[in-house]
Amino acid sequence: MSGTGRAARVRLERRLETARHGARLLDRKQRILMDQIERLHLHMDQTRAEWEDLAGEAAVWLRRSAALDGSARIAAAAPLADATVFFRWGNAMGVTYPEDAQCALPALLAQSGSSALSYAASVHRSALVAGARHASIQRAELLLAAELLATRTRQRAVESRWIPKLEDELANIRRQLDAQELEESLRLRWAADRKSGDG
Hints:
This protein is mostly helical. It has one domain (about 5-180): Helix Hairpins, CATH 1.10.287. The chain has helices spanning about 5-70, 70-75, 115-199, and strands spanning about 85-90, 95-105. It has a two-stranded antiparallel sheet with strand order 1-2. Helix 1 packs antiparallel against helix 3 (about 115-199).
């Protein structure tokens, strides 16, 4: 406790109002984060389905190409450079997260295989792009969910510990001030009674 006078009461009232305002802001932040996570969940379901469909199709065409062209032609058709993934970053309530992924894919090599090999290469490229987009959404959801958990923990600490502690301190100061005022009132009355008794 930081004193028992009127100034201490004013300080505690301000701190208590600040704590209550902080709890309201944390509650608002939670609602915004939950809305963002819900939006990401819907988007994640779509990107997962797209990626899984393309990955399944790519696997089918790879098996067909392996049967028609053999592993040597498949290896020869592989690009010489790696694909590069770039993320577009977003921000929600102080959390930076990937909003979308873009892929820079290497050029396809001229192939001397079947049309299955050509289609397998094309579908694998599409699956890679879909997988990168899905991974960016998953990462965003993970980062926002971690921030939501931290925000809930902070709000619980403010509401269940900090605010009750300040309320108790304020109640003690008010009781002490009431006792001091009662004592002063009794002293003044006693002094007035003594003065009237002397007169």
